[in-house]
Design goal:
Largest interface: A-B, 23 and 29 residues
Oligomer: heterodimer
Largest sheet of chain B: 6 strands, mixed
Mean pLDDT of chain B: 92
Strand content of chain A: under 5%
CATH topology of the largest domain in chain B: Rossmann fold
Order of helices and strands of chain B: EEEHEEHEHHHEHEHEEHH
Distance between the termini of chain B: 44 Å
CATH architecture of the largest domain in chain B: 3-Layer(aba) Sandwich
Shape of chain A: globular
Radius of gyration of chain B: 18 Å
Number of helices of chain A: 11
Order of helices and strands of chain A: HHHHHHHHHHH
Low-confidence stretches of chain B: none
Number of strands of chain B: 10
Radius of gyration of chain A: 20 Å
């Protein structure tokens, strides 16, 4: 028994990423639910339809989550199956790889989300379809940001190899408290507010709450989200190309499966 | 007519440490060249640069007259690679894998091509099986099918018969010989199986510490180093390596 304990203890002790990983998840959960609790304790009468808004925001956040994870998974599956090298010696341009991943991630996202969306109506009497046409704009914005995060993580996987895998899983949870999914930005401490304003999520979820509470759409919020999305997406694509070049210099591509 | 594969003064350094130093060689049409050398001598690095997976520190790789650094996609259309260290997606069936790669290489008449490969490489019985559930020998034949699905004029083989039983190893070697004759392909073979190299290769590059220390036909190498076979030549050179260290 002690031997088995030692086997895992040595593993954890020798790996800073593992130690950080153990600390990371509880910290993020506590911060997120801390902000949610703070919001409800101050503004307990903020929502007339608390369940509807919380569930709608949760489903919308899942669009971001699923699209990003789907993109990352497509890459990780190639690494896990040791097929990565085969992919990069096929006559494919990098832009073709990116486009293929974007569309495949969309299909994966929809497969995961559509049943959840259908189920919420009979189970909780809530349907995100009630958002109407703006839902399409919100979906596209979240999907674009999810893909962008996927590009960032995939760029890391190309450059640093499978050791970057944990980042793939944890990156989204870091954004959850800052994205102001369930509460307005004012709940965050002032420093976090500055950071949060640089994320499209704040504008997307603020607008979702606005539509559900007030019944009209403020296009300024969506415009701001799309501008930020465009900036991040462009940066993500550049980073992906740059990582590929660096990986060719460092030799990561040829050792990826090992 | 362009040389199918030409490596010109190629070097690769990692953190200022040379992995490959200024090597040059050519492979003509209908030729199989072997690369031999101890582990870490630069074989995989050389193959990586030919495939465009590694950026050379110096020098260039020309495939059918095109340089890999500028015409990567065009070159990869006519080139392929097999190695026991890379695999095909395990969850897909053999047929699905071949369909995927056939499409990636834009193979015309793909169904006919898959049927042809299936017959040639004895894949009929396993064509609808999950790739991850196959034996090493079966997986090797599937990888071989993938590696020639685009009828490459230049084929790179990294230990193509490693971990195979003698019968399957012999089948693979015969298949490669026939493929090379039928298609006039140029093949670069990195292997630790000296009998395989003696049987298949018209010429051998002996590598040590990132440089080519000798290049001759297998027979000439044996004669030159005064040994009975290629394995003894290899052992002599490896021993010299340890002594020089």
């Amino acid at each position: 028994m002690y031997g088995l304990f030692l086997r895992h203890f040595f593993l954890i002790k020798s790996s800073l990423p593992r130690i950080l990983d153990l600390i990371y998840w509880p910290t993020i959960q506590i911060i997120l639910w801390g902000f949610i609790s703070k919001f409800f304790s101050i503004y307990s009468d903020y929502y007339n339809n608390t369940l509807g808004i919380i569930l709608t925001c949760a489903i919308l956040y899942d669009i971001l989550f699923r699209s990003s994870i789907s993109f990352n998974m497509l890459f990780l599956e190639e690494i896990w199956s040791r097929n990565f090298t085969n992919l990069f010696i096929a006559p494919l341009k990098l832009k073709e790889i990116i486009v293929a991943l974007i569309f495949t991630a969309l299909i994966r996202t929809l497969i995961g989300l559509v049943p959840a969306i259908i189920l919420t109506a009979p189970l909780f009497g809530v349907s995100i379809l009630n958002l109407g046409f703006p839902l399409l704009l919100l979906f596209l914005s979240l999907y674009t940001f999810g893909i962008t995060l996927g590009l960032f993580v995939s760029a890391g996987l190309i450059r640093f190899g499978p050791s970057f895998e944990n980042i793939a899983w944890s990156s989204l949870f870091l954004l959850a408290p800052l994205g102001c999914i369930y509460y307005p930005i004012e709940i965050l401490p002032s420093f976090f507010q500055i950071v949060a304003k640089g994320l499209p999520l704040v504008y997307i979820f603020d607008e979702t709450r606005n539509i559900l509470l007030n019944g009209f759409i403020n296009y300024d919020n969506l415009k701001q989200a799309y501008i930020l999305n465009l900036i991040y997406l462009t940066f993500g694509i550049i980073l992906f190309y740059f990582s590929f070049l660096k990986a060719r210099v460092k030799g990561t591509l040829i050792n990826m499966g090992e | 007519m362009c040389t199918p594969l030409e490596v010109v003064e190629l070097s690769k350094a990692y953190n200022n440490k040379d992995a490959v130093k200024n090597i040059s060689f050519k492979i003509n049409k209908n030729e199989i060249i072997g690369i031999l050398g101890p582990n870490g001598c630069g074989k995989t690095t050389t193959i990586g640069m030919i495939l465009g997976l590694l950026k050379p520190t110096k020098g260039k790789v020309l495939v059918n007259g095109l340089e890999i650094e500028t015409k990567r996609v065009e070159i990869l259309d006519n080139l392929n690679f097999i190695s026991p260290y890379i695999e095909l997606p395990k969850k897909l069936t053999v047929k699905q894998n071949l369909e995927v790669y056939g499409r990636l290489y834009d193979v015309k008449n793909l169904s006919t091509k898959i049927e042809y490969l299936s017959e040639k490489l004895r894949l009929d019985e396993i064509i609808n099986k999950i790739t991850g559930e196959l034996s090493s020998g079966q997986k090797n034949r599937v990888s071989l099918a993938k590696s020639i699905i685009n009828d490459p004029t230049v084929l790179l083989l990294d230990e193509p018969t490693a971990s195979l039983d003698p019968e399957t190893g012999d089948f693979v070697r015969s298949f490669l010989e026939n493929y090379q004759k039928e298609k006039g392909a140029s093949i670069l073979l990195a292997s630790h199986n000296m009998n395989e190299v003696e049987r298949l290769c018209t010429s051998v590059l002996m590598m040590k510490n990132g440089i080519i220390i000798d290049r001759e036909s297998p027979k000439e190498l044996i004669k030159k180093h005064g040994r009975k076979n290629l394995e003894e030549v290899f052992l002599k050179l490896t021993k010299e390596k340890h002594e020089s260290e």
